[in-house]
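Re: your question about Glycoside hydrolase family 68 protein

S., sorry for the slow reply, the queue was backed up all week. Below is exactly what I fed in.
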Amino acid sequence: MATTTRRITRPIIGGLTAAGVIAGALLAGAPAAVAETALQPGAEPTIHTQEAFDPEGDFTSRWTRADAMQLKRISDPDAGSRENSMPESVTMPTIPQDFPDMSNGEVWVWDTWPLTDEAGNQYSVDGQEIIFSLVADRSLGFDERHQYAKIGYFSRPAGIPADERPENGGWTYGGLVFDEGVTGTIFPDQSYSHQTQWSGSARVFKGGEIKLFFTDVAFYRNPDGTNIKPYDPRIALSVGKVHVNKAKGVFFTGFDTVTDLLQADGTYYQTGEQNEFFNFRDPFTFEDPAHPGETYMVFEGNSAMDRDGARCTAEDLGYREGDPYAETVDEVNASGATYQIGNIGLAKAKNKELTEWEFLPPILSANCVTDQTERPQFVIQDGKYYLFTISHRGTFAAGLDGPEGVYGFVGDGIRSDFQPLNWGSGLALGNPTNLNFAGGQPFAPDYNQHPGHFQAYSHYVMPGGLVQSFIDTIGTHDDFVRGGTLGPTVKIDLDGVSSAVDYSYGDGGLGGWADIPANLDVNKGGVLQ
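Result:
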């Protein structure tokens, strides 16, 4: 029987999240019974209670090294060259190389998020579905896109089944949200070499007003790419209004000013002075049904320690007493793992306009586990809060390894002692990956790696358990293609401390290309319904 869900996300975008609460949506399909898998010898995962705490309290859950060690324990040590070593139940089906381009060659596309309300419902406007994406001009190399990213938007008619749409999803690219120069005005130092926009989220209100939360970024670099000073990322807000008519299609007014909301504080969230390579981005706002009238924001951060002085504790390692496979704190701190200290942050709005915010302690730390906890989001189902984030294989700390993809945790509230999903590993949806071999880089995959190793990233979980992501690189060392468009939508089912890919969805688990369906509409009178 289907179960009623609510979802808090992101930011799903780099953003996306970047990145609400899925209210009244159905997570249909069979229970997510994770197939049994042979665990390799290794440390046992940390014991987590899932207990909830006051959102404004100071408890921070830990994704520990003991937890992350389970990723190697569930990997098949006998998987050969170019084979997948991870369990099929948590592996995204392989995407074919002959994928369609949703922008028809106009722009590179990556982190993407829909138009949502405070509960994560995805809206069409007068019959038009709308999404926001990070985009860059195709004259740039695909790997140059990050420092030139802008927020663009796409639209398409709502209510058409995926198998009746054009192969590329049927989207029309509408252009950029901001005029040139608008987002650069908030930086006191105007000497930046590059000014860009990274992932966020878009909240719709009555009358078609949109509050666009995003990461506003300024780089200060020399011509050779070295830093003159650390880059300056700020969580920001711009307000506009969406319109639909036959002559112009979907278009916006407003988005001509930007409000600076949050900058990393150095107390909970690492700053550029503490580490020039810090992460602070991907805002998504939501209302928690357990705390009516309060609006919260989740985002990616790093634990506030100096880069060269960072140290991890026994609690960060999380080994059970007497575990013969346990590392020592001194071993981990000497390994270089202290450079990976990602966390998931929380903030609370101080006014109804959502223009003033205060930091709260992070809800999850990943000290000595991974450096990136991008586009965090929650799914609330059967009274449980499922926290999801995305991470790269290359950002795991020394001594750890895991696929590119979605990692998930379950607890009883937005601040909980979160238990990692699936054998205690945290892996919820990974790319096909062989942990017996190196990964290489998206522009140069390792010879022995599975062709799907870099196929998808920047996942966003939608109503009904649908998951969308963008295509990065598909293929082997001697035969690969780069992406820059959204991939096929897949579906995951949640069941207690497990998740599983629904291989009955679409064609062997792969649904429509760039399929991001709305479940509610803003009608011509501007009423949310």
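The chain has four helices and 31 strands. Confidence is low (pLDDT under 50) at residues 1-34.

Happy to talk it through on Thursday.
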